[in-house]
Amino acid sequence: MKTMKRILIVKVTSLGDVVQTLPVVEDLRHAFPGVTVDWAVDESCAEVVRWHPGVANVLCAPLRRFKKMRHAGDFRAIAASIRALRTHRYDAVIDLHGVYKSAIIARLARARARFGYLTQDLGESGARFAYSHRYGPRPHCGAWHGMRVNAGEALGYAPRAVADYGVVAPRDARLPAAVVEPTPFMLMFHATSCDDKKWPTDHWAALATRMIARGVRVLLPWGSPAERDEAERIAARAPGAAVLPAMTVRQLGAAIGRAALVVGVDTGFVHMAHALRRPTVMMFVATSREHLGIEDGPRTRSIGEAGAAPSVDDALRAIDAVCPALTVGAAVTA
Predict the structure, then answer these.
(1) pLDDT in tens, 259-312
(2) What is the overall mean pLDDT for the chain?
(3) E strand spans, the chain
(4) Distance of CA 279 to the CA centre of its chain
(5) Contact, 102 vs 122, CB < 8 A?
(6) CA 61 from centroid of its chain's CA atoms
(7) Are 110 and 90 in contact (CB under 8 A)?
(8) Are 45 and 18 in contact (CB under 8 A)?
């Protein structure tokens, strides 16, 4: 195993994928004591990477604005990100994304070696132009552990047995009053970018009603006007549930850090809750629980499967398993 002094991770989007790549940082730091780890990420997901004390530099570019660049400021931001990317020379760049935009970043970086997936494992086959070395075939395991295995095989180490995300919730964010009240609350992340991943509104309302009856405050975050409308529909059917105001990623991270429980579909903020070690239930409706789920001892549960949405009772049983303090009667006296 060669000595590594500086390594660049490339994982640009989406929020859940970026969160689930965080354990690679601790794997690298354990394998190469004293190594400096930088990370290239889209500006939309950079916040959570900054919460990791083991990441020296977060190199973020407005990648999602590339196709819509209309202003001089967009070009200046992109030029600045390229200059930052080429400030250091890396012993290795590990592209754990495998599409054109990540490959371009890997190729622009000044590096001794650039690692990427085999062509059949790439998200976009044309990304193969960027790499001097390839990972082995994708291992037969979940996607998140598979990234750790690939990175370890490439650089000559075995990933640690337990995934260490290494992040802590922000403590300096200004939060809505509903989040800072002393009684226990749960966050329901009902929204997702893909309609086929949604859990039915009636199910959310029924679950909220059952949890409110246990004495738990139910808070509904949202990120767009359509998601706010959905939160309001859920709250209208579950008297006592509260729709939160618009919140930043940092504010939501701080709120997750205070939550007694987080329940949601397969979306970035639920992965964040898992990384922040909160009791978490993730519900699968259209994607693979086996491939993309979260499981970590008694603290988290993934339920449902593609084409087989979990029931409200399934969700309640999972909640009882990850957070027995919120069973009937316990939350009322918490």
Answers:
(1) 999 999 999 999 999 999 999 999 999 999 999 999 878 999 999 999 899 999
(2) 92
(3) 6-10, 36-42, 55-61, 89-90, 92-95, 110-111, 114-116, 133-134, 185-189, 217-220, 242-243, 261-265, 280-284, 300-304
(4) 15
(5) no
(6) 18
(7) yes
(8) yes
Do residues 262 and 273 lie in contact, with contact meaning Cβ atoms separated by under 8 Å? Answer: yes
Q: Which of these, 22, 83, 30, lies nearest to 50 by C-alpha position?
A: 22
Would you state the structure tokens that stand for residue 247, as one six-digit string? Answer: 């919140």
**Encoded tokens for 191:** 């929204």
Q: For residues 275 and 57, give the distance between their C-alpha atoms in angstroms, rounded to a whole number.
A: 20
Smallest Cα–Cα separation from 105: which of 119, 85, 123, 125? Answer: 85
d(CA 58, CA 85): 10
Structure confidence at residue 332 as a pLDDT band (50, 70, 90): very low
Retrieve residue 122's tokens.
Answer: 């790439």
Q: C-alpha 256: how far from its chain's center?
A: 13
What is the residue whose two structure tokens read 């009603």?
Answer: 209
Taking the C-alpha atoms of residue 121 and residue 309, their distance in angstroms, rounded to an integer, is: 28
Angle at the Cα of 15 from the Cα atoms of 51 and 314, rounded to 5 degrees: 110
Strands 55-61 and 36-42: parallel
Measured in degrees and rounded to the nearest 5, phi and psi for residue 253 equal -60, -40
- Name the residue among 30, 281, 312 with its Cα closest to residue 166: 30
CA–CA distance, 223 with 201 (Å, rounded to integer): 17
> Distance between CA atoms of 77 and 197, rounded to whole angstroms?
34
pLDDT single digits (tens) 97-138: 999 999 999 999 999 999 999 999 999 999 999 999 999 998
Which pair of tokens denotes residue 30? 């354990």
Beta-carbon contacts of 218 under 8 Å, excluding residues fewer than 6 positions away, are 185, 186, 188, 208, 211, 212, 238, 240, 241, 242
